[in-house]
Each structure stands twice: as C-alpha cells, then as structure tokens.
UniProtKB/TrEMBL annotation:
Entry keyword annotation includes Membrane: no
Pfam families named in the record: RPE65
Cofactor(s) in the UniProt record: Fe(2+)
Record InterPro entries: Carotenoid_Oase
Family note: Belongs to the carotenoid oxygenase family.
The protein's name in its UniProt record: Carotenoid cleavage dioxygenase 7
Keywords: Dioxygenase, Iron, Metal-binding, Oxidoreductase
PANTHER family in UniProt: BETA-CAROTENE DIOXYGENASE (PTHR10543), CAROTENOID CLEAVAGE DIOXYGENASE 7, CHLOROPLASTIC (PTHR10543:SF37)
Length: 493
C-alpha cells in the first residue's frame, strides 16, 4: 500500500472528491505559478517528506522545518501533527544569536516579517534524528535545543546551546560524550530576501553559501556536562569550534565514535558525506530549476576532473588532550574512495560506537551521460583493512539510500541492505534486497520485488524499516508543487 501524508497543506490543496490540485502554498524551493504570488504568506509548506521515525510503537514522518506528522503504522492513515519539541522552552537572547553588522541588521529586520507575517517557526526541528541503542534513547535536535527522549516519549534531558554564527545544520552525530555539529556557513542574501518576501523567488533565495573561510567549523557539545553520568571528566569550551582544515559542506553523517586513553586523551572519528561550496547551490537543489520548473539531473553532474567538488565520503579525525585542547584535526577520503557518494549508513545497533563497515550510494562511473548522479551502485567500505566492495544495478537503473537491516547480533555486517531501484525504460520501481555480507560477489542479490504500477514512486530521500510492522516507508521528493507534478508524470531520467 502507499499513502500521501495528509498534511494541512495537502488537505487544503487537493480536492478529495475530484483528486484535482489547486496549489496555494509556496514551497521553500519554488514559487507559485498560476496561483497568488504577491502577498501570499503561506510559504512554509510542511510536506513531512524527508525521513521516517518509529519510536514507542508510533510512526512519524519528519520534515526540515516543522512538526512531524504521525501516521497509523498499519494503514498509513495520517493522524495529525505531533509537537515533539516543548513549545514552552525559552528562546535564546537575540543579542547572543546575531552580531551587529549590516547583514545581521537586515536579518533582524526580516525576522519579525518571517515569524509574524509568514508564520515561520523560530524553532526548526531537524529531520535527522539519532537513536542511542545502548541507552535506549531517541535523540532529536531543533535549531536551538536538543532533547533526549526515552521510549515512551518522556523527556529525560534538554540542553540549549547558543552558537553566535550563521550556520546551516542538516545532519549531525553523537558519541558517548558529545553531540557533534558540522556548521555549513551561510549568509543572508538581501536582494534574494526581498524578492522572496514579494513572492518573486523561492524563500530559499534569502540564503547563500558563505565560503569566506578555508576551514569548516565542528562543534563538540557535551552530552552530560555537570551531571553524574560522566563525573570527573573535563570538557573543552564548546563555544570554540574545531576548525577542520578543509572547506566542506557536510550533507550526511554515517557515524561518529570516540576512544579515550589512560591519560584522558580523546580521539574522535567521524564518517560523513560532504561536497564543495562551489558545487552546492540553493537555487538548484536536487537538479530542480525553479525558474524553468524542470528537473534536470545534469545540473548535479560535473565535467571530468571536477569530481572532487561533488558529494563524496570523508573521514574526520580529531585528537584532544586531557584538557580538551585540540591537538590535531584531519580530513581524508574515506578508504581513499573518491567516487561521488552520499547517504552513508551503518548497522544502527552500534551507532555512536566504533564501526568496521559503512555503506553508501555511489556511482559506477560507467555512464557517458549523467556519469555521477543519479547513483547506480552500493559501496561497502571496511574501515579496518580499507577494502571496498560494490554492487551495481543494471543499465539505465538508479538507486536511492541503502537501508541496513541487522540479523540481530550475529555480526556487524550480518544482515540485509534494502535499496529502492528505479528502472527508466519501464518507469517501474523495485525493492532490492542484498545480502550485506556478500556485497561484491555474484550471489549478493537476494530478491528484487516489483512495486505495482499504481503504487509507483520516484527516488526519495531517507527510508526506514520497521521489522515488527513489516513495512518499508520511503520519504519522497514532493517538496514543492512543481516537483510533485514531475514525480506524478515520471521524471525523464
């Protein structure tokens, strides 16, 4: 079965009797065409389309910028919005959040417009969550607060950190002692902001990347500072970021872990996907050009010799002494794997602890047209012996994020990988099951299930497997009205 999430915008825009659509909300990456542009304050369409969470017997669909929507696990019917973050939490003083330069003054002017007129929430819940399996805790993060929630959604701990910088944070990591934030530097585009407010350009036009520094800030936030959980442990001043010696825009984090020696020295290792500031473009996210209203994956590809600008897997190593002072920080290609890659995943049973294997979606590099994106290959990397193994789909077939399913304690890589495959020639979707131990061998393919044509869907963002429900839920690219139309008519690639 398949269901669209009945968000507030979806209920308003779709006629339940005829099935016809009349778009009234502006998406963050689009403008209204054929609708009311000027004076339209419906700009933050919560489409609940980025990731899926199952916790405490309940199922939620998350989006980057609004409350999750709860859905019924067996019928997939929408139950409504769920306020995970405590709305009564106090705000950080604005003086701590903004510095008084020209762009910040402009931001201060825009804030009451965005929050008051356009009803944009000042508290942005990130769509990426983490599960600390050892402590049986759900970790979530909003734009200015972090929460720890037990299985029954009881709030166990909340911390708030004020970072005086303009950053965009999409994904993050945790270790036994820290929350790890990669800060992608952004700046306010004043002209773009004015055009967005007037409805002439997408709301995302208010932002642009800020490649003003050759380094990347990494914030190590203490998980249990001043508590009894980790007594007699000193922390560095978290307000001072570690500047990684590489300018990288971090997309997704596969895992992070730490190891402390007898002298209190701490080594932290992070595995992630990142791209260049030169390649990342708010105006052409996912190959979608809002000006033409077309989805063109060629925009996500670059010419030969520029592959390093594209998303690829990196390993970040940080060494701290016993007082928390940074002794060394390095960034390298993970296992020297230099092909464009994204969506790094591991066996979630060991999240936050040392892992041997990491999986990701990547490209075989065999195509003349669209050589790097969309992805057509799954890569398995052994971080100990540095070996790599791959499985590739057939010609003119593309894949999304791999999802690891553990066989419950028989070994870190003993399990299955689920991959959604899209066949261009037949315009059909398949659910591919791979044996994760056998990646790189001819018998790694366990099964390929054909999705019924009437339930066909395009490549998505992040998937989820719930073994006790026996359903796989995939978050689809329906972020804007134009993209939804393309998804319905099947993108040409």
């Amino acid at each position: 079965m398949a269901r669209y999430i009945e968000t507030e915008a979806q209920v308003e825009e779709r006629d339940s009797a005829t099935g016809e659509w009349r778009f009234t909300h502006r998406g963050p990456f689009s403008v209204l065409k054929g609708g009311k542009m000027m004076g339209n304050t419906k700009v933050m369409k919560n489409v609940a389309n980025t990731s899926v969470l199952r916790w405490g017997g309940r199922l939620f669909c998350l989006w980057e910028g609004g409350d999750p929507y709860e859905i019924q696990p067996r019928t997939l019917d929408t139950l409504g919005r769920f306020n995970v973050v405590d709305a009564g939490r106090t705000e950080v003083d604005d003086d701590e959040r903004f510095r008084a330069d020209f762009l910040n003054v402009a931001a201060q002017i825009l804030k009451p417009i965005l929050y008051g007129v356009f009803k944009m929430s000042p508290k942005r819940l990130l769509s990426h969550y983490k599960i600390d399996v050892r402590r049986n805790r759900l970790l979530i993060m909003s734009c200015n607060a972090e929460d720890i929630i037990r299985l029954n959604f009881k709030l166990l701990q909340s911390q708030e950190f004020s970072i005086p910088d303009h950053l965009m944070i999409h994904d993050w990591a945790f270790t036994d002692s820290h929350y790890i934030l990669f800060g992608n530097r952004i700046k306010l585009d004043v002209a773009g902001s004015m055009a967005a407010v007037c409805g002439l350009s997408p709301m995302i036009s208010a932002l642009s990347v800020n490649p003003s520094k050759p380094t990347s800030p990494i914030y190590l936030l203490p998980r249990f500072a001043n508590t009894t959980q980790q007594p007699n442990r000193s922390y560095r001043d978290w307000r001072i970021p570690i500047e990684a010696p590489s300018q990288m825009w971090v997309l997704h984090v596969g895992n992070a872990f730490e190891e402390r020696d007898v002298n209190g020295n701490l080594d932290i290792q992070i595995q992630a996907s990142s791209c260049s500031y030169q390649w990342f473009n708010f105006q052409k996210m996912f190959g979608y050009d809002w000006r033409s209203g077309k989805l063109d994956p060629s925009m996500m590809n670059l010419e030969h010799g520029q592959e390093k600008l594209l998303p690829h897997l990196v390993q970040v190593n940080i060494s701290l002494d016993g007082q928390g002072n940074c002794q060394k920080c390095g960034v390298n290609d993970l296992n020297q794997w230099n092909k464009p890659s994204d969506f790094p995943v591991i066996n979630q049973d060991i999240s936050g602890t040392k892992n041997t294997y990491i999986y990701a979606a990547t490209s075989s590099g065999s195509r003349q047209a669209l050589p790097h994106f969309p992805f057509d290959t799954v890569v398995k990397l052994n971080t100990i012996d540095k070996s790599t193994q791959t499985w590739s789909t057939g010609r003119r077939r593309f894949i999304g994020e791999p999802i690891f399913i553990s066989k419950n304690g028989k070994g870190e890589d003993d399990g299955y990988l689920l991959v959604v495959e899209y066949a261009v020639s037949t315009q059909r979707c398949y659910l591919v099951v791979l044996d994760s131990k056998l990646i790189g061998k001819k018998n790694s393919l366990v099964a390929r299930f054909e999705v019924p044509r009437h339930l066909n869907f395009p490549l998505g963002f992040h998937g989820f497997w719930a073994p006790n429900v026996c359903t796989s839920v995939n978050s689809q690219v329906s972020r804007t009205n134009q993209e939804f139309a393309l998804a319905s008519s099947r993108a040409p690639y």
